Amino acid sequence: MASLFDVTAGLLVGPTGGGTVTQATNKSTGVTLNTESGQITMNNAQLDAGTEVSFTVTNSKISATDVVVACHGSAGTAGSYLVNANAIAAGSFAVTVSNVSAGNLSEAIVINFVALKGASS
Predict the structure, then answer these.
(1) Alpha carbon of 72 to those of 15, 63, 65, 75: distances in Å?
(2) How far apart are CA 85 and CA 118, in angstroms?
(3) Distance CA 59, CA 97 (A)
(4) What is the pLDDT of residue 62?
(5) 111 contacts 73 by C-beta, under 8 angstroms
(6) Which long-range contacts (CB under 8 A, 24 or more apart) does 49-53 make?
(7) Which of 25, 36, 102, 111 can pair with 29 through a Cys bridge, CB separation 3.0 to 4.6 Å?
(8) Per-residue pLDDT, 1
(9) What pLDDT is attached to residue 103?
(10) Residues sharing a CB contact under 8 Å with residue 90, sequence separation 6 or more, in sequence order
């Protein structure tokens, strides 16, 4: 994998392995996606105003020292969700999605994520 900060002819080079997965059943259902980056389409179950939900992403590319960045990429109401990656461990991480709007939302939002390889020494 090229360095995330390798700049060639004005282009930023990042992880070369990406993929997609769609969440089944409800918004707390875990998913499996074994790539360095990707998109997770969430289930369209209702997320009440002012509440949050977490789910596990099983991913063999993740190490406990990695930094995983996640964001609301597309679909759904822009500005109504806060998304973060947390509980990073060897082989998995969690994603927490908060509905920060004043209304209940039933949208299948798409979450983008990327894993930045880290080290402890």
Answers:
(1) 19, 23, 23, 8
(2) 15
(3) 19
(4) 92
(5) yes
(6) 49/99, 49/101, 49/102, 49/103, 49/104, 49/105, 50/99, 50/100, 51/98, 51/99, 52/96, 52/97, 52/98, 52/99, 53/27, 53/28, 53/96, 53/97
(7) 25
(8) 47
(9) 95
(10) 62, 63, 64
Domains, the chain: 19-116 (2.60.40.2080)
Beta strands at 18-22 and 37-41: parallel, antiparallel or unpaired? parallel
Collect all residues with Cβ–Cβ distance below 8 Å to 8 and sequence separation of at least 6: none
- Report DSSP letters for 39-60, one per residue: EEEPP---B-TT-EEEEEEE-T
Residue segments in the chain with a per-residue pLDDT below the cut of 70: 1-16
Q: Is 83 helix (H, G, I), strand (E, B) or coil?
A: strand
